[in-house]
Amino acid sequence: MDSHSPVIPSTTSLSMAAKRPCPSQNPRAENNLGEVERRLEAFLSLSHVASLSLDLSFERLLQSLPSDSDSDLIDRALKMASLLLDAAKHSSRKRASNHNSLSWPLPPDLTIKVFSMLDTQSLCYASATCLLFSKCAKDPMCYANLDLTTLVPKVNNAVVATMIQRAGKGLRSLKLGVVPSAATSLGSCPPFVCTIRNAIVEVPNFSWNDKRSRQGRESSILTRCCLSPLSGDGGAPGALLRKLHLYNIERMDNASLGAALSACPSLLDLEIVGLHVELRQTLMSVSANCHLIERLFFESSKTGRDDSLKAQTCFELVNNCPHLTSLSLRGFKLHDCKVRVLVKGFRKLKYVDFSTSYSITGNFLRNLGSCNGGNLLEVLILRDCMHLKEMEVARLLTAILAGDFKLLVHLDISNREGLASEADWYHRCYNSSIMPTKQVLEARPDMCLVAEYPSAEGRLDSLQLEYFWILVH
């Protein structure tokens, strides 16, 4: 080895050196370190030399050595250059971090407070900025509200586990899955924001049914185990979780979702869109574990085919979840008798959305607005319910004129296929003469009444409608 080349210690010698006294207690080690520093300083003083001169000098050095030694010298030069580059980068980051620490105007506690207000993606960007921000961004407070939704599948189980582990028992909100992009397809249920007594009631601006044709059937890289970290560490991460929103996680099943809900006894807000889980099993899990829940939004991934709901499940949900104020069950095969148990049973219910429910006729609305459980309704959405009858809607509007549903401020009875007639649902009604729509609008100017039906050009006769329904289902 060249006598002027610095000696690079091996892993063994480094471990042995760790047991030796520090340089201040070992004069020989201190002298060696000083010699390395002097040589390094002398080497760096050559930085002003032109690159061509260095090339020529290195080439002459290689030519002066035996032919079997030149490759060894080249390897050592490359290794030394790599070590020097790493050391320079480390020192640069360290000085930049020290500079940020001195120039950043906020103390760590306020920095953490600011970071806790960022969305999850912005927090990750901030943590990669410098060591100061990275340290602050690791505080559990910053991960209380996790939003890991994406437009395309790119978040895996490991990412979810890491984020939940960072949040620990401070986790309060978790949004996860694939959220389709912007525009709503033609004829779908549009989103809206309705102000009710200074409170904002929001319907998600996407739908599995509306977006399925655009999104395709690609599988998310999230698996059925993606929510298992909620049960980790003795159940600490899920214990105080208040909000859980899950979107289009195709591999999720009933057992996995049920296990996740069992770890979330403090859940107040549950939103499920596009998961292949049964309505009955999901409501049973909510009833058994989430007794404090206030909002439940559940949209089926297979419109009109989930007929799993039982009356007993409805009774158990009503008895075990008395605080529910908002209920949305969209795209399920619901029957009036079961829906009535739910709407009448929940004494605090203000918001109801049964859009695209297949079997609802509207019979459950009879005498509902004058009794406990229905008279507190502020929003009622029955959009695109295939079996919703013209006569039942007329009875509802007449009841409103008579003074029932006094708190109702938003009613949606629109249907892109028209309303069903009393005797035969294949016969559709597009311009009813028995529904007192105009009178309701005059008597209740405070209420938003949405009643949109297809124009004459867009109507389907009964045979076309029957054939269309068979094709779809």
Automatic annotation (TrEMBL):
<dbReference type="InterPro" id="IPR036047">
    <property type="entry name" value="F-box-like_dom_sf"/>
</dbReference>
<dbReference type="InterPro" id="IPR032675">
    <property type="entry name" value="LRR_dom_sf"/>
</dbReference>
<dbReference type="GO" id="GO:0031146">
    <property type="term" value="P:SCF-dependent proteasomal ubiquitin-dependent protein catabolic process"/>
</dbReference>
<protein>
    <submittedName>
        <fullName>F-box protein isoform C</fullName>
    </submittedName>
</protein>
<dbReference type="Pfam" id="PF12937">
    <property type="entry name" value="F-box-like"/>
</dbReference>
<dbReference type="InterPro" id="IPR001810">
    <property type="entry name" value="F-box_dom"/>
</dbReference>
<feature type="domain" description="F-box">
    <location>
        <begin position="106"/>
        <end position="148"/>
    </location>
</feature>
<feature type="region of interest" description="Disordered">
    <location>
        <begin position="1"/>
        <end position="31"/>
    </location>
</feature>
<dbReference type="GO" id="GO:0019005">
    <property type="term" value="C:SCF ubiquitin ligase complex"/>
</dbReference>
